[in-house]
Amino acid sequence: MSGPSTGWEIVVGLEVHCELQTKTKLFCACPNAFGDEPNTNVCPVCLGLPGSLPVLNEQAVELAMRIGAALHCEVRSSSFHRKNYFYPDMPKDYQISQYDQPINVGGYLELPDGSRVGIVRAHIEEDTGKTSHRGESGRIHSADYALVDYNRSGVPLVEIVTEPDIRSAAQARAFVAELRGVLVAAEASDARMEEGSLRIDANVSVRAEGTEQLGTRCEIKNLNSLRSLGLAIEHEAARQVAVIDAGGRVVQETRHWDEQGGRTVPLRSKEEAFDYRYFPEPDLVPLDPDADWKARAAAGVGMLPAERRARLAALVGSPTSQQTDQLQAAVDQGLDDLVVAAVEAGAPAGLALVRAVNELAVDLVAARALDPGSFAALLQLEESGALSPTQAKTVLATLRDAGGGDPGAIARSKGFEALAEATLEGVVRDVVDAHPDEWARYLAGDDKLAGFFTGQVMKATSGKANGKAVAGALRRLRG
Amino acid sequence: MSEQSATLGREDVAHVASLARLALTDEELDRFTVQLARVIDHARDVAALDVAEVEPTSHPVPMRNVLRPDVVGECLGRHEVLAAAPECEDGRFKVPRVIGEAP
Lengths: 479, 103
Hints:
The complex is a heterodimer. Helices cover 39% and strands 18% of the residues of chain A. Chain A is an alpha+beta fold. In chain A, the strands form three sheets. Chain A has a nine-stranded mixed sheet. Chain A starts with 7 loop residues before the first strand and ends with a helix. The mean pLDDT of chain A is 91. Chain B has a domain at 10-47: Histone, subunit A (Orthogonal Bundle). Helices cover 37% and strands 9% of the residues of chain B. Chain B has a two-stranded antiparallel sheet. In chain B, α1 (10-19) packs across α2 (26-47). Chain B starts with 9 loop residues before the first helix and ends in a 7-residue tail after the last strand. Mean pLDDT of chain B is 86; it is low at 1-5. At the A-B interface, β2, α1, β8 and β9 of A face α1, β1, α3 and β3 of B.
Protein backbone atom coordinates (compact mmCIF):
# COMPACT_ATOMS: atom_id res chain seq x y z
CA MET A 1 0.00 0.00 0.00
CA SER A 2 1.34 3.48 -0.75
CA GLY A 3 -0.12 6.97 -0.36
CA PRO A 4 -3.78 7.82 -0.94
CA SER A 5 -5.26 7.60 -4.41
CA THR A 6 -5.24 10.58 -6.74
CA GLY A 7 -7.69 13.31 -5.92
CA TRP A 8 -6.68 13.36 -2.25
CA GLU A 9 -4.20 15.51 -0.41
CA ILE A 10 -2.37 14.44 2.76
CA VAL A 11 -2.13 17.06 5.52
CA VAL A 12 0.36 16.43 8.31
CA GLY A 13 1.44 18.33 11.39
CA LEU A 14 4.17 16.95 13.64
CA GLU A 15 4.85 17.05 17.36
CA VAL A 16 8.51 16.39 17.99
CA HIS A 17 9.80 15.66 21.49
CA CYS A 18 13.48 16.33 21.75
CA GLU A 19 15.59 15.47 24.79
CA LEU A 20 17.99 18.27 25.69
CA GLN A 21 21.62 17.36 26.26
CA THR A 22 22.05 18.79 29.73
CA LYS A 23 24.11 17.18 32.47
CA THR A 24 21.15 17.03 34.85
CA LYS A 25 17.38 16.71 34.75
CA LEU A 26 14.98 19.62 34.32
CA PHE A 27 13.98 20.12 37.94
CA CYS A 28 16.55 18.16 39.98
CA ALA A 29 20.30 17.40 40.05
CA CYS A 30 19.99 13.74 38.95
CA PRO A 31 22.14 12.89 35.89
CA ASN A 32 20.48 13.11 32.48
CA ALA A 33 22.00 9.92 31.08
CA PHE A 34 20.86 7.22 28.66
CA GLY A 35 21.43 3.52 29.25
CA ASP A 36 22.27 3.48 32.98
CA GLU A 37 21.00 0.74 35.33
CA PRO A 38 17.23 1.23 35.94
CA ASN A 39 16.18 3.53 38.78
CA THR A 40 19.69 4.66 39.68
CA ASN A 41 19.38 8.28 38.48
CA VAL A 42 16.42 9.18 40.66
CA CYS A 43 15.68 11.35 43.69
CA PRO A 44 12.62 12.54 45.63
CA VAL A 45 11.89 15.27 43.03
CA CYS A 46 11.77 13.05 39.93
CA LEU A 47 10.02 10.28 41.87
CA GLY A 48 7.33 12.75 42.91
CA LEU A 49 7.78 12.07 46.61
CA PRO A 50 5.74 14.31 48.93
CA GLY A 51 7.43 17.51 50.02
CA SER A 52 9.97 17.61 47.19
CA LEU A 53 10.22 20.82 45.18
CA PRO A 54 11.34 21.43 41.57
CA VAL A 55 14.09 23.95 40.74
CA LEU A 56 14.54 24.84 37.07
CA ASN A 57 17.78 23.92 35.27
CA GLU A 58 19.38 27.06 33.79
CA GLN A 59 21.10 25.17 30.94
CA ALA A 60 17.82 23.57 29.85
CA VAL A 61 16.36 27.07 29.45
CA GLU A 62 19.41 28.16 27.47
CA LEU A 63 19.14 25.15 25.11
CA ALA A 64 15.40 25.72 24.66
CA MET A 65 16.12 29.34 23.68
CA ARG A 66 18.79 28.15 21.23
CA ILE A 67 16.20 25.90 19.57
CA GLY A 68 13.80 28.85 19.43
CA ALA A 69 16.43 31.04 17.81
CA ALA A 70 17.41 28.34 15.31
CA LEU A 71 13.75 27.92 14.31
CA HIS A 72 13.20 31.70 13.95
CA CYS A 73 10.76 31.74 16.88
CA GLU A 74 9.94 34.65 19.12
CA VAL A 75 11.49 33.84 22.52
CA ARG A 76 9.15 35.04 25.25
CA SER A 77 8.65 35.16 28.97
CA SER A 78 6.86 31.97 29.98
CA SER A 79 5.40 29.98 32.83
CA PHE A 80 4.84 26.36 33.83
CA HIS A 81 1.64 24.37 34.28
CA ARG A 82 0.73 20.97 35.63
CA LYS A 83 -0.79 18.57 33.10
CA ASN A 84 -2.75 16.05 35.15
CA TYR A 85 -3.13 12.41 34.17
CA PHE A 86 -2.70 9.00 35.70
CA TYR A 87 -0.16 6.71 34.17
CA PRO A 88 2.59 4.83 35.96
CA ASP A 89 5.37 6.48 33.96
CA MET A 90 4.54 9.80 35.65
CA PRO A 91 4.97 9.29 39.40
CA LYS A 92 3.64 12.73 40.43
CA ASP A 93 0.41 12.04 38.48
CA TYR A 94 1.09 15.24 36.60
CA GLN A 95 3.70 16.38 34.12
CA ILE A 96 5.21 19.84 34.46
CA SER A 97 4.87 21.49 31.06
CA GLN A 98 4.26 24.87 29.47
CA TYR A 99 0.69 25.57 28.45
CA ASP A 100 -0.62 28.99 27.44
CA GLN A 101 2.72 30.80 27.82
CA PRO A 102 5.38 28.71 26.04
CA ILE A 103 8.95 29.99 25.78
CA ASN A 104 9.12 29.87 21.93
CA VAL A 105 6.30 30.75 19.52
CA GLY A 106 5.78 31.31 15.82
CA GLY A 107 8.83 30.20 13.81
CA TYR A 108 9.57 28.14 10.74
CA LEU A 109 12.00 25.63 9.32
CA GLU A 110 13.03 25.83 5.68
CA LEU A 111 13.68 22.46 4.03
CA PRO A 112 16.39 21.77 1.41
CA ASP A 113 13.77 21.87 -1.36
CA GLY A 114 12.87 25.44 -0.35
CA SER A 115 9.52 24.58 1.25
CA ARG A 116 8.79 26.07 4.66
CA VAL A 117 7.09 24.37 7.60
CA GLY A 118 5.64 26.73 10.19
CA ILE A 119 6.44 26.20 13.88
CA VAL A 120 3.51 26.91 16.20
CA ARG A 121 5.52 26.64 19.40
CA ALA A 122 8.50 24.94 21.04
CA HIS A 123 7.98 24.62 24.77
CA ILE A 124 9.85 23.13 27.73
CA GLU A 125 8.52 20.10 29.61
CA GLU A 126 9.78 17.12 31.57
CA ASP A 127 10.07 13.61 30.17
CA THR A 128 8.29 10.63 31.68
CA GLY A 129 9.73 7.36 32.96
CA LYS A 130 10.08 4.38 30.68
CA THR A 131 7.45 1.64 30.82
CA SER A 132 8.19 -1.88 29.56
CA HIS A 133 5.13 -4.00 28.98
CA ARG A 134 5.51 -7.62 29.98
CA GLY A 135 3.39 -10.53 28.92
CA GLU A 136 3.09 -13.55 26.66
CA SER A 137 2.77 -11.74 23.37
CA GLY A 138 4.87 -8.68 24.16
CA ARG A 139 2.11 -6.43 22.85
CA ILE A 140 0.80 -3.50 24.83
CA HIS A 141 -2.88 -4.45 24.76
CA SER A 142 -2.27 -7.98 25.96
CA ALA A 143 0.48 -7.27 28.51
CA ASP A 144 0.10 -8.91 31.92
CA TYR A 145 1.97 -6.20 33.80
CA ALA A 146 4.45 -3.41 33.26
CA LEU A 147 7.85 -2.45 34.67
CA VAL A 148 8.83 1.17 35.18
CA ASP A 149 12.27 2.79 35.17
CA TYR A 150 12.28 6.42 36.33
CA ASN A 151 15.78 7.32 35.10
CA ARG A 152 14.17 9.25 32.24
CA SER A 153 11.55 10.84 34.47
CA GLY A 154 12.28 14.57 34.60
CA VAL A 155 14.76 14.66 31.72
CA PRO A 156 14.36 18.04 29.97
CA LEU A 157 12.43 18.04 26.71
CA VAL A 158 11.49 20.63 24.18
CA GLU A 159 8.28 19.80 22.34
CA ILE A 160 8.23 21.32 18.86
CA VAL A 161 4.77 21.63 17.30
CA THR A 162 4.47 22.36 13.58
CA GLU A 163 1.67 23.93 11.61
CA PRO A 164 -0.23 21.41 9.44
CA ASP A 165 2.00 22.50 6.54
CA ILE A 166 3.37 19.10 5.52
CA ARG A 167 1.84 17.55 2.39
CA SER A 168 3.52 14.17 1.98
CA ALA A 169 5.34 11.41 3.80
CA ALA A 170 8.54 12.41 1.99
CA GLN A 171 8.22 16.01 3.19
CA ALA A 172 7.62 14.82 6.77
CA ARG A 173 10.81 12.80 6.60
CA ALA A 174 12.71 15.72 5.10
CA PHE A 175 11.43 17.96 7.91
CA VAL A 176 12.60 15.61 10.64
CA ALA A 177 15.97 15.08 8.94
CA GLU A 178 16.48 18.84 8.67
CA LEU A 179 15.27 19.44 12.24
CA ARG A 180 17.73 16.83 13.45
CA GLY A 181 20.54 18.73 11.74
CA VAL A 182 19.37 21.96 13.36
CA LEU A 183 19.21 20.43 16.85
CA VAL A 184 22.69 18.98 16.48
CA ALA A 185 24.05 22.28 15.11
CA ALA A 186 22.55 24.08 18.11
CA GLU A 187 24.14 21.45 20.38
CA ALA A 188 20.74 21.27 22.04
CA SER A 189 20.19 17.53 21.55
CA ASP A 190 21.98 14.52 20.11
CA ALA A 191 18.65 13.95 18.28
CA ARG A 192 19.09 10.17 18.10
CA MET A 193 15.78 8.58 17.16
CA GLU A 194 17.12 5.09 17.88
CA GLU A 195 17.84 6.07 21.50
CA GLY A 196 14.54 7.92 21.85
CA SER A 197 16.10 11.35 22.22
CA LEU A 198 13.95 12.45 19.28
CA ARG A 199 10.36 11.16 19.33
CA ILE A 200 7.66 12.02 16.87
CA ASP A 201 3.88 12.02 16.82
CA ALA A 202 2.18 12.74 13.50
CA ASN A 203 -1.25 14.33 13.13
CA VAL A 204 -2.55 13.04 9.82
CA SER A 205 -5.68 13.98 7.88
CA VAL A 206 -6.79 13.88 4.26
CA ARG A 207 -8.89 16.22 2.13
CA ALA A 208 -10.08 16.31 -1.45
CA GLU A 209 -7.47 18.00 -3.62
CA GLY A 210 -8.24 21.66 -4.15
CA THR A 211 -10.30 22.05 -0.97
CA GLU A 212 -9.22 24.21 1.96
CA GLN A 213 -11.07 22.74 4.94
CA LEU A 214 -8.96 20.39 7.06
CA GLY A 215 -10.24 16.84 7.47
CA THR A 216 -10.57 15.09 10.83
CA ARG A 217 -7.12 14.15 12.04
CA CYS A 218 -5.71 11.12 13.81
CA GLU A 219 -2.61 11.30 15.96
CA ILE A 220 -0.12 8.52 15.20
CA LYS A 221 2.31 7.49 17.93
CA ASN A 222 5.22 5.06 18.17
CA LEU A 223 7.18 6.39 15.22
CA ASN A 224 10.72 5.33 16.05
CA SER A 225 12.52 6.01 12.80
CA LEU A 226 12.26 8.14 9.68
CA ARG A 227 11.20 4.99 7.89
CA SER A 228 8.28 4.27 10.22
CA LEU A 229 7.29 7.95 10.09
CA GLY A 230 6.98 7.79 6.30
CA LEU A 231 5.26 4.42 6.22
CA ALA A 232 2.81 5.31 8.99
CA ILE A 233 1.74 8.53 7.28
CA GLU A 234 1.15 6.74 3.97
CA HIS A 235 -0.78 3.90 5.55
CA GLU A 236 -2.85 6.15 7.77
CA ALA A 237 -3.77 8.46 4.87
CA ALA A 238 -4.77 5.44 2.75
CA ARG A 239 -6.86 4.11 5.65
CA GLN A 240 -8.69 7.43 6.01
CA VAL A 241 -9.36 7.65 2.27
CA ALA A 242 -10.77 4.10 2.35
CA VAL A 243 -13.05 5.04 5.29
CA ILE A 244 -14.37 8.09 3.42
CA ASP A 245 -14.69 6.23 0.10
CA ALA A 246 -16.79 3.61 1.89
CA GLY A 247 -19.16 6.37 3.02
CA GLY A 248 -17.82 6.52 6.58
CA ARG A 249 -16.36 9.31 8.67
CA VAL A 250 -12.87 9.50 10.15
CA VAL A 251 -13.03 9.51 13.95
CA GLN A 252 -10.54 11.72 15.78
CA GLU A 253 -8.41 9.37 17.86
CA THR A 254 -4.90 8.38 18.84
CA ARG A 255 -3.50 5.47 16.89
CA HIS A 256 -0.41 3.40 17.39
CA TRP A 257 1.91 2.46 14.51
CA ASP A 258 2.24 -1.32 14.45
CA GLU A 259 5.62 -1.75 12.77
CA GLN A 260 5.31 -5.51 12.27
CA GLY A 261 1.74 -5.37 10.96
CA GLY A 262 2.44 -2.30 8.82
CA ARG A 263 -0.74 -0.56 10.00
CA THR A 264 -2.05 1.88 12.58
CA VAL A 265 -4.32 0.64 15.36
CA PRO A 266 -6.46 2.59 17.85
CA LEU A 267 -5.29 2.23 21.42
CA ARG A 268 -6.88 4.63 23.83
CA SER A 269 -10.42 3.83 24.86
CA LYS A 270 -13.08 6.34 23.88
CA GLU A 271 -14.08 7.21 27.44
CA GLU A 272 -10.59 8.51 28.12
CA ALA A 273 -11.25 11.96 26.70
CA PHE A 274 -8.42 14.47 26.92
CA ASP A 275 -9.04 16.40 30.08
CA TYR A 276 -5.72 17.30 31.58
CA ARG A 277 -7.04 20.04 33.90
CA TYR A 278 -3.98 22.21 33.37
CA PHE A 279 -3.32 24.66 36.17
CA PRO A 280 -0.37 26.94 36.99
CA GLU A 281 2.49 25.10 38.73
CA PRO A 282 2.57 26.79 42.14
CA ASP A 283 6.13 25.60 42.90
CA LEU A 284 7.75 27.41 39.95
CA VAL A 285 7.93 31.15 39.35
CA PRO A 286 7.69 32.73 35.89
CA LEU A 287 10.63 32.54 33.51
CA ASP A 288 11.57 35.88 32.00
CA PRO A 289 14.96 35.83 30.24
CA ASP A 290 16.43 39.27 29.59
CA ALA A 291 17.65 40.41 26.18
CA ASP A 292 21.29 39.61 27.05
CA TRP A 293 20.52 36.01 27.90
CA LYS A 294 18.41 35.56 24.77
CA ALA A 295 21.24 37.00 22.67
CA ARG A 296 23.79 34.70 24.33
CA ALA A 297 21.58 31.69 23.63
CA ALA A 298 21.07 32.71 19.99
CA ALA A 299 24.85 33.14 19.60
CA GLY A 300 25.28 29.55 20.80
CA VAL A 301 23.55 28.20 17.69
CA GLY A 302 26.26 26.81 15.42
CA MET A 303 26.22 26.91 11.63
CA LEU A 304 22.85 25.52 10.53
CA PRO A 305 22.53 22.87 7.79
CA ALA A 306 21.01 25.43 5.39
CA GLU A 307 24.01 27.73 5.84
CA ARG A 308 26.36 24.79 5.32
CA ARG A 309 24.60 23.86 2.08
CA ALA A 310 24.73 27.47 0.90
CA ARG A 311 28.46 27.60 1.70
CA LEU A 312 29.15 24.53 -0.46
CA ALA A 313 26.87 25.77 -3.24
CA ALA A 314 28.86 29.02 -3.34
CA LEU A 315 32.13 27.06 -3.71
CA VAL A 316 30.78 24.90 -6.53
CA GLY A 317 29.34 27.90 -8.39
CA SER A 318 25.96 27.03 -9.85
CA PRO A 319 25.41 23.43 -8.74
CA THR A 320 23.72 20.93 -11.04
CA SER A 321 20.84 18.96 -9.54
CA GLN A 322 23.25 16.06 -8.99
CA GLN A 323 25.63 18.41 -7.17
CA THR A 324 22.74 19.75 -5.11
CA ASP A 325 22.11 16.20 -3.90
CA GLN A 326 25.82 15.73 -3.29
CA LEU A 327 26.21 18.87 -1.23
CA GLN A 328 23.17 17.96 0.84
CA ALA A 329 24.70 14.52 1.43
CA ALA A 330 28.03 16.12 2.37
CA VAL A 331 26.27 18.31 4.98
CA ASP A 332 24.17 15.41 6.29
CA GLN A 333 27.32 13.31 6.68
CA GLY A 334 29.31 16.08 8.32
CA LEU A 335 31.87 16.15 5.48
CA ASP A 336 31.31 19.74 4.39
CA ASP A 337 34.03 21.19 6.63
CA LEU A 338 36.53 18.85 4.98
CA VAL A 339 35.38 19.86 1.48
CA VAL A 340 35.63 23.55 2.33
CA ALA A 341 39.10 23.15 3.85
CA ALA A 342 40.28 21.12 0.84
CA VAL A 343 39.05 23.80 -1.56
CA GLU A 344 40.86 26.44 0.51
CA ALA A 345 43.99 24.29 0.14
CA GLY A 346 43.63 24.41 -3.65
CA ALA A 347 41.34 21.48 -4.55
CA PRO A 348 38.75 21.87 -7.32
CA ALA A 349 35.36 22.21 -5.55
CA GLY A 350 33.26 19.91 -7.74
CA LEU A 351 35.78 17.08 -7.55
CA ALA A 352 36.27 17.53 -3.79
CA LEU A 353 32.50 17.28 -3.31
CA VAL A 354 31.98 14.16 -5.41
CA ARG A 355 35.01 12.33 -3.97
CA ALA A 356 33.96 13.21 -0.41
CA VAL A 357 30.39 11.99 -0.87
CA ASN A 358 31.15 8.89 -2.93
CA GLU A 359 34.52 7.70 -1.63
CA LEU A 360 34.88 8.99 1.92
CA ALA A 361 31.36 8.31 3.20
CA VAL A 362 32.13 4.61 3.74
CA ASP A 363 33.99 5.54 6.94
CA LEU A 364 32.65 8.86 8.19
CA VAL A 365 34.65 8.94 11.40
CA ALA A 366 37.94 8.53 9.53
CA ALA A 367 36.79 10.86 6.76
CA ARG A 368 36.01 13.72 9.15
CA ALA A 369 39.50 13.36 10.61
CA LEU A 370 41.25 13.34 7.21
CA ASP A 371 43.90 16.03 6.70
CA PRO A 372 42.35 18.47 4.16
CA GLY A 373 45.79 19.34 2.74
CA SER A 374 46.46 15.69 1.76
CA PHE A 375 42.94 15.41 0.32
CA ALA A 376 43.50 18.58 -1.72
CA ALA A 377 46.91 17.39 -3.00
CA LEU A 378 45.36 14.13 -4.19
CA LEU A 379 42.50 15.91 -5.95
CA GLN A 380 45.04 18.13 -7.74
CA LEU A 381 46.90 15.04 -8.98
CA GLU A 382 43.62 13.62 -10.30
CA GLU A 383 42.55 16.94 -11.85
CA SER A 384 45.89 17.30 -13.68
CA GLY A 385 45.61 13.80 -15.12
CA ALA A 386 48.68 12.53 -13.25
CA LEU A 387 46.39 9.94 -11.63
CA SER A 388 43.37 8.31 -13.27
CA PRO A 389 40.08 8.46 -11.32
CA THR A 390 40.42 4.78 -10.43
CA GLN A 391 43.96 5.29 -9.15
CA ALA A 392 42.94 8.42 -7.27
CA LYS A 393 40.15 6.54 -5.48
CA THR A 394 42.57 3.84 -4.39
CA VAL A 395 45.07 6.39 -3.06
CA LEU A 396 42.23 8.25 -1.32
CA ALA A 397 41.19 5.10 0.55
CA THR A 398 44.76 4.79 1.84
CA LEU A 399 44.85 8.46 2.82
CA ARG A 400 41.53 8.12 4.64
CA ASP A 401 42.68 5.09 6.63
CA ALA A 402 45.96 6.81 7.54
CA GLY A 403 44.37 10.19 8.30
CA GLY A 404 46.53 11.86 5.63
CA GLY A 405 49.91 11.56 3.92
CA ASP A 406 51.69 12.32 0.65
CA PRO A 407 49.37 11.15 -2.15
CA GLY A 408 52.20 11.24 -4.71
CA ALA A 409 54.34 8.89 -2.60
CA ILE A 410 51.40 6.55 -2.01
CA ALA A 411 50.66 6.48 -5.75
CA ARG A 412 54.31 5.60 -6.55
CA SER A 413 54.35 2.88 -3.88
CA LYS A 414 51.32 1.32 -5.55
CA GLY A 415 52.98 1.51 -8.96
CA PHE A 416 50.50 4.12 -10.18
CA GLU A 417 52.34 6.01 -12.86
CA ALA A 418 50.25 7.74 -15.41
CA LEU A 419 50.71 5.85 -18.69
CA ALA A 420 53.05 7.54 -21.07
CA GLU A 421 51.15 9.01 -23.98
CA ALA A 422 52.84 6.71 -26.50
CA THR A 423 51.96 3.61 -24.42
CA LEU A 424 48.37 4.73 -24.16
CA GLU A 425 48.12 5.31 -27.91
CA GLY A 426 49.33 1.73 -28.41
CA VAL A 427 46.73 0.31 -26.05
CA VAL A 428 43.96 2.31 -27.72
CA ARG A 429 45.08 1.06 -31.12
CA ASP A 430 45.02 -2.58 -29.89
CA VAL A 431 41.50 -2.14 -28.52
CA VAL A 432 40.30 -0.59 -31.78
CA ASP A 433 41.82 -3.46 -33.78
CA ALA A 434 40.10 -5.99 -31.53
CA HIS A 435 36.65 -4.43 -32.10
CA PRO A 436 36.36 -3.58 -35.80
CA ASP A 437 32.52 -3.52 -35.91
CA GLU A 438 32.25 -1.06 -33.01
CA TRP A 439 35.00 1.06 -34.52
CA ALA A 440 33.12 1.22 -37.84
CA ARG A 441 29.98 2.41 -36.04
CA TYR A 442 32.02 4.97 -34.10
CA LEU A 443 33.50 6.25 -37.36
CA ALA A 444 29.98 6.44 -38.79
CA GLY A 445 29.08 8.89 -36.03
CA ASP A 446 27.80 6.74 -33.15
CA ASP A 447 29.47 8.77 -30.38
CA LYS A 448 28.07 6.57 -27.63
CA LEU A 449 30.76 4.04 -28.53
CA ALA A 450 33.43 6.35 -27.13
CA GLY A 451 32.31 5.14 -23.72
CA PHE A 452 32.65 1.52 -24.83
CA PHE A 453 36.21 2.06 -26.04
CA THR A 454 37.17 4.00 -22.92
CA GLY A 455 35.89 1.12 -20.83
CA GLN A 456 37.90 -1.40 -22.83
CA VAL A 457 41.05 0.70 -22.50
CA MET A 458 40.50 1.00 -18.74
CA LYS A 459 40.14 -2.77 -18.54
CA ALA A 460 43.31 -3.32 -20.54
CA THR A 461 45.29 -0.90 -18.34
CA SER A 462 43.72 -1.95 -15.01
CA GLY A 463 42.32 1.55 -14.60
CA LYS A 464 45.64 3.33 -14.98
CA ALA A 465 44.64 5.23 -18.10
CA ASN A 466 43.32 8.76 -17.76
CA GLY A 467 39.83 9.11 -19.26
CA LYS A 468 40.55 12.45 -20.89
CA ALA A 469 43.73 11.12 -22.47
CA VAL A 470 41.82 8.11 -23.86
CA ALA A 471 39.15 10.40 -25.33
CA GLY A 472 41.89 12.48 -26.94
CA ALA A 473 43.57 9.37 -28.40
CA LEU A 474 40.25 8.13 -29.82
CA ARG A 475 39.59 11.48 -31.47
CA ARG A 476 43.05 11.50 -32.99
CA LEU A 477 42.60 7.95 -34.37
CA ARG A 478 39.25 8.92 -35.87
CA GLY A 479 41.09 11.74 -37.59
CA MET B 1 -27.95 31.35 47.50
CA SER B 2 -29.62 28.17 46.30
CA GLU B 3 -28.27 24.77 47.37
CA GLN B 4 -27.71 23.76 43.73
CA SER B 5 -25.53 26.12 41.71
CA ALA B 6 -26.42 26.85 38.11
CA THR B 7 -22.69 26.63 37.26
CA LEU B 8 -21.99 23.20 38.69
CA GLY B 9 -24.10 20.06 38.57
CA ARG B 10 -23.85 16.62 40.09
CA GLU B 11 -22.63 15.17 36.78
CA ASP B 12 -19.75 17.70 36.71
CA VAL B 13 -18.62 16.51 40.12
CA ALA B 14 -18.92 12.89 39.05
CA HIS B 15 -16.79 13.66 35.96
CA VAL B 16 -14.09 15.46 37.95
CA ALA B 17 -14.09 12.64 40.49
CA SER B 18 -13.58 10.04 37.78
CA LEU B 19 -10.70 12.08 36.30
CA ALA B 20 -9.13 12.15 39.77
CA ARG B 21 -9.79 8.39 40.16
CA LEU B 22 -12.02 9.00 43.19
CA ALA B 23 -14.85 6.52 43.82
CA LEU B 24 -17.59 8.63 45.40
CA THR B 25 -20.81 7.30 46.89
CA ASP B 26 -24.14 8.91 45.95
CA GLU B 27 -24.24 10.61 49.32
CA GLU B 28 -20.70 12.01 48.82
CA LEU B 29 -21.59 13.23 45.33
CA ASP B 30 -24.52 15.19 46.76
CA ARG B 31 -22.42 16.64 49.54
CA PHE B 32 -19.45 17.62 47.34
CA THR B 33 -21.70 19.11 44.67
CA VAL B 34 -22.99 21.58 47.26
CA GLN B 35 -19.51 22.31 48.61
CA LEU B 36 -17.83 22.70 45.22
CA ALA B 37 -20.68 24.89 44.00
CA ARG B 38 -19.96 27.27 46.85
CA VAL B 39 -16.30 27.44 45.82
CA ILE B 40 -17.28 28.17 42.23
CA ASP B 41 -19.78 30.79 43.33
CA HIS B 42 -17.07 32.43 45.41
CA ALA B 43 -14.80 32.51 42.36
CA ARG B 44 -17.65 34.16 40.49
CA ASP B 45 -17.88 36.82 43.21
CA VAL B 46 -14.17 37.50 42.76
CA ALA B 47 -14.56 37.57 38.98
CA ALA B 48 -17.24 40.24 39.36
CA LEU B 49 -14.75 42.69 40.90
CA ASP B 50 -13.50 45.56 38.77
CA VAL B 51 -9.81 44.77 38.23
CA ALA B 52 -9.23 47.07 35.27
CA GLU B 53 -6.49 48.85 37.21
CA VAL B 54 -4.77 45.68 38.44
CA GLU B 55 -1.78 44.15 36.61
CA PRO B 56 -2.36 40.48 35.73
CA THR B 57 -0.12 38.12 37.67
CA SER B 58 0.56 34.43 37.33
CA HIS B 59 2.09 34.04 40.74
CA PRO B 60 1.67 35.67 44.16
CA VAL B 61 5.44 35.78 44.77
CA PRO B 62 7.25 38.71 43.12
CA MET B 63 10.10 36.54 41.85
CA ARG B 64 11.25 35.47 38.36
CA ASN B 65 13.97 33.24 36.96
CA VAL B 66 14.67 31.05 39.97
CA LEU B 67 17.28 28.79 38.43
CA ARG B 68 19.76 26.11 39.32
CA PRO B 69 23.17 25.54 37.65
CA ASP B 70 23.42 22.34 35.58
CA VAL B 71 25.56 20.43 38.09
CA VAL B 72 25.04 16.78 39.03
CA GLY B 73 24.13 16.10 42.66
CA GLU B 74 23.26 13.11 44.82
CA CYS B 75 20.67 10.52 43.83
CA LEU B 76 18.92 7.99 46.02
CA GLY B 77 20.26 4.44 46.21
CA ARG B 78 18.22 1.99 44.17
CA HIS B 79 17.60 -0.22 47.17
CA GLU B 80 16.08 2.73 49.01
CA VAL B 81 14.02 3.73 45.95
CA LEU B 82 12.55 0.29 45.38
CA ALA B 83 11.86 -0.20 49.08
CA ALA B 84 8.89 2.12 48.56
CA ALA B 85 7.46 -0.03 45.75
CA PRO B 86 4.67 -2.50 46.51
CA GLU B 87 6.32 -4.83 44.00
CA CYS B 88 9.47 -4.72 41.89
CA GLU B 89 11.26 -6.82 39.27
CA ASP B 90 14.61 -6.38 37.46
CA GLY B 91 15.35 -3.21 39.40
CA ARG B 92 12.10 -1.66 38.24
CA PHE B 93 8.73 -0.84 39.70
CA LYS B 94 6.17 -3.51 38.86
CA VAL B 95 2.75 -2.08 38.07
CA PRO B 96 -0.57 -3.51 36.94
CA ARG B 97 -1.09 -3.90 33.22
CA VAL B 98 -1.89 -0.66 31.48
CA ILE B 99 -4.22 -0.49 28.54
CA GLY B 100 -3.56 2.28 26.11
CA GLU B 101 -0.72 4.65 25.57
CA ALA B 102 0.50 7.51 27.70
CA PRO B 103 -0.86 10.83 26.40
